[in-house]
What we know:
By secondary structure, this protein is an alpha/beta fold.
Amino acid sequence: xxxxxxxxxxxxxxxxxxxxxxxxxxxxxxxxxxxxxxxxxxxxxxxxxxxxxxxxxxxxxxxxxxxxxxxxxxxxxxxxxxxxxxxxxxxxxxxxxxxxxxxxxxxxxxxxxxxxxxxxxxxxxxxxxxxxxxxxxxxxxxxxxxxxxxxxxxxxxxxxxxxxxxxxxxxxxxxxxxxxxxxxxxxxxxxxxxxxxxxxxxxxxxxxxxxxxxxxxxxxxxxxxxxxxxxxxxxxxxxxxxxxxxxxxxxxxxxxxxxxxxxxxxxxxxxxxxxxxxxxxxxxxxxxxxxxxxxxxxxxxxxxxxxxxxxxxxxxxxxxxxxxxxxxxxxxxxxxxxxxxxxxxxx
Length: 347
Ligand code: 1CP
């Protein structure tokens, strides 16, 4: 079974020889070649130069037996393309030059011009597709809610109170902004699928900040809005995965988004999610901190996860991954230990 076949079989609900494996944020700051590239080039420059984006996306595939590549880009490409002017300083997080302050801002966002400004994130997919052989390929975007968090706050935050307040004080404006993000995201994902992505992941990093009923009322329809704009492939719905960080309390309503797969946060018990969603692909969900605890801890945690996966449905519809992205101090040895347990799993 090739890596790509294994990944597609997980979505088709077919038997697996073992779960396919990839790792959120598998490219990036924990890798030596990535740091070398970043010493020479700005972050947007790496994203917007297909040869550089491909080089950093390939580095983890050369080091680890991963079944899938994810295009090198960022969720904040969409607000930047709409005109919010996103920059990354050295060391700190993103800054939004033109944050969302009121209705007049949304009126100025350039939805019509976004596809041309996002063409680099489609070219990067096409470039990577040609370089990864029989591996699966993922495109991605940020969820409209998580993009609203950065747009309203203007920068990173622990609690994103500007966006959460906006949702309560001016839900109509929050909705207009999220609809713009959803439509731009759908356009990007459609183009990435057409350029050779096998699946797309929607990152809702800050979805877990919302209580269930607010999430259901305001965010679920926005994820649906994206999913409904993606074309079917060979009679089956486009392969979509939704990751909601801190979203344990939201898992019961996430099926209403229409996605085909859920990427579970590390705090969500695998079996609880499986009981709620027997037909969805589940992905996850090793705690990234486990990797900081070293190779032995990583291997033990991975074995426990595989045991939980195997008890349901004969181990189908599973993707081995982390419960959030790899952290910068992670060692190559710890990642290797995790990968070895998955690739040697008896299924
Ligand atoms: O070199 C650097 O310092 C830049 C660090 C970096 C990297 C490597 C940023 C800035 N973005 C990325 C790439 C990236 N971002 C990828 C592709 C790499 C891969 O996975 O292999 C992906 C999928 C993302 C997604 C992303 N960006 C998310 C969602 C996933 C998650 O981790 O929760 C979020 C929230 C962002 C915003 C962002 N971009 C970069 C930073 C430092 C941040 C976080 C800002 C904050 O603290 O709020």
